[in-house]
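Input for the complex:
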Amino acid sequence: MNIILLSGGSGQRLWPLSNDVRSKQFIRIFRTEKGELESMVQRVYRQIRTVDPEAKVTIATSKSQVSAIHNQLGSDVGICVEPCRRDTFPAVALAVAYLRDVRGVRESEPVVVCPVDPYVEEDYFQALKSLGERAALSEANLVLMGIEPTYPSAKYGYIIPKDKKNISKVSMFKEKPTEAAAADYIAQGALWNGGVFAFRLGYVMERVRQITGFADYDGLLEGYHSLEKISFDYGVVEHEPNIEVMGFSGMWKDLGTWNTLTEAMDGPNIGKAVFNEKCENVHVINELDVPVLCMGLKNMVVSASPEGILVSDKEQSSYIKPFVSEFDHKVMYAEKSWGSFRVLDVGKSSMTIKVTLNPGHRMNYHSHQYRDEVWTVVCGEGRTIIDGTEKQVAAGDVVTMAAGTWHMVIADTELQMIEVQLGKDISVYDKQKHEPIFC
Amino acid sequence: MNIILLSGGSGQRLWPLSNDVRSKQFIRIFRTEKGELESMVQRVYRQIRTVDPEAKVTIATSKSQVSAIHNQLGSDVGICVEPCRRDTFPAVALAVAYLRDVRGVRESEPVVVCPVDPYVEEDYFQALKSLGERAALSEANLVLMGIEPTYPSAKYGYIIPKDKKNISKVSMFKEKPTEAAAADYIAQGALWNGGVFAFRLGYVMERVRQITGFADYDGLLEGYHSLEKISFDYGVVEHEPNIEVMGFSGMWKDLGTWNTLTEAMDGPNIGKAVFNEKCENVHVINELDVPVLCMGLKNMVVSASPEGILVSDKEQSSYIKPFVSEFDHKVMYAEKSWGSFRVLDVGKSSMTIKVTLNPGHRMNYHSHQYRDEVWTVVCGEGRTIIDGTEKQVAAGDVVTMAAGTWHMVIADTELQMIEVQLGKDISVYDKQKHEPIFC
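Predicted:
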């Protein structure tokens, strides 16, 4: 199976766990059978591999998510990076061209496109496989997945099939109807549109050429910034008369808000939390090292991270977005391809962070124009390269770097350092990178 | 007026703002007319000074509170330090002996004893002055303050006067009756016992001699550990037939729980907090630098500090103690005589803290046997003394100190440093102090 996972989205609805560099799909919130925590993207990736160990998975995403994807899925996963944010049509176009021109998928082969964040079981990926197989054989140009609705929701799009067979031609689409209208559609056999579709690669490449004028990956990549912001639905699906829908009646949840997300938790808390006996239907997701004590709470969610603290009635939690937009969005925690960092303290002319490098990983070789830095290694072993000179470091070693100094660190074991940044107007943009030439 | 303020108490009921070194009286939670925040101890001290600028104030307390008292009230305040924790009788005995033998108060002079944490207005301290004046003249040996009850509480002690005059002989005491019994007592004119009493100094010194065998301050100090743990009520009041009570009908609140404390706040929050329009009767006290977002909360208190997060129904918040007892009580923030520190990160063999020294202040000259330390100055100017050598330091300077190195820092301006401690089993007990001989 060739599968493109669309990984987009900003992080406002699941604040404070999501932020500008950590969309909801990267929050480690689900407990695996082994008792470890995994994120939506890790869960989906694991499920695909279980159903189809040979699946060719490509994640279509933006630059800002690449580090987190490498951190969570390793460096072997296929990633197709948008040079800038457009919408789903350009993202799918680029990823399909990438599959053909970089990964060698033939134009006759089927491709399945799926969001990276549905909360589903393995039967869903079995259904994706069937969807791809159908797309390979069907005379239709697009085969959509239609999810059996569990209630007349006003927040989804509906696909209305021509007949009641499991695979049917599509009669029409209805985007976010009222609940009453939704109930009518469902009575007629309407299905939810979960944004999942399959096609033969050549079909989409031809549409891309017609719409954008670009015919291959390099062209699309170069002209990406000039592409119109348009969804795949509006750009392709709505203009295509020859579409099928295949029903799926298994478990499918859209965990877009705290309210829905906590329903998928296997216990009342992740992280340190204590509840008194008067608590009912309370979930705590606590990424801090200190405890959350809950007393007499009912139907609530509490979430704490280095970015802030949410305390919300569950139903109210879906209205979070406008409040979060007002906050100062300094990133306090981020996963990088080499590990993670957490901001410990922000001063007037300083910032202190804790840096954790995974064993065998390294930072980019870089320098800062306007700030000095001091590293104190607190744990592990590794090597620093400072202006070209390599040196062994271990817990207790201190490295001072004036502004302009080129520096990097390579972790031989897991390596933790306290980094104190000193300067006025400290910014992530004050960074020059180059590849080290000597190691 | 000679006044002894009893400053005791552990910090469990107002967790996470109070902790083992910060009892509730040190939490800065009240807004002054100037708009600044002050603690209970600062409020009471300011009120006493307003009513009686000449008042001789002595704070009877334990060693662990001395730094916080100096930090909040300056270094001029009289402090009588218990060598170890006993109960109120030994604490009062030591403070009374201190007043006579160290501060020169005569045996005929009246002394007023009062807890450090009532939430009151200035009329209360006018009443304390009258209480002292009465004690100087009265034939009674003890004059108690009796507070007019506002409801039949089961959690206070009651003083039942012989008659209804403002100053009356005491008929009997009733400790924490049922609410029904309390209502009966109140109908008979009973008053709350707020732990406030006055006496001529010589009377208590004589009782101290009879009970403990010690007759002066030095003797009490030396023999303090051998004194019985007994309250002043049980040790003295209950055995004294000649007691008066003086009524007080002004405002008096015992802010011992989050529920009562938030009633004294002048707005819904201290620190960063945002409330959506569905919140009702919610208070947030947030000592962290990041926001607390509250959505759809009713009758709740949220408090966040470096020690943890409390989210509680207000009524439930009075049952906090057993939960807090279970927590690991690592002190994450403390006020010291020279400034404050905050723990930023705790690693396996490291701890990172932010140290803030107030201008003109200095740490003790000290060393650690089992840990190395690294200071990175992030703000301000000062001088370090490292193994006897003084050096100017400013933002950006790094000082490394191997275990065994003697060190201190003197702040010429406000000085902030990131201190990384490195070693196994890092403990506050790993500290040797001596006074610097060269500065």
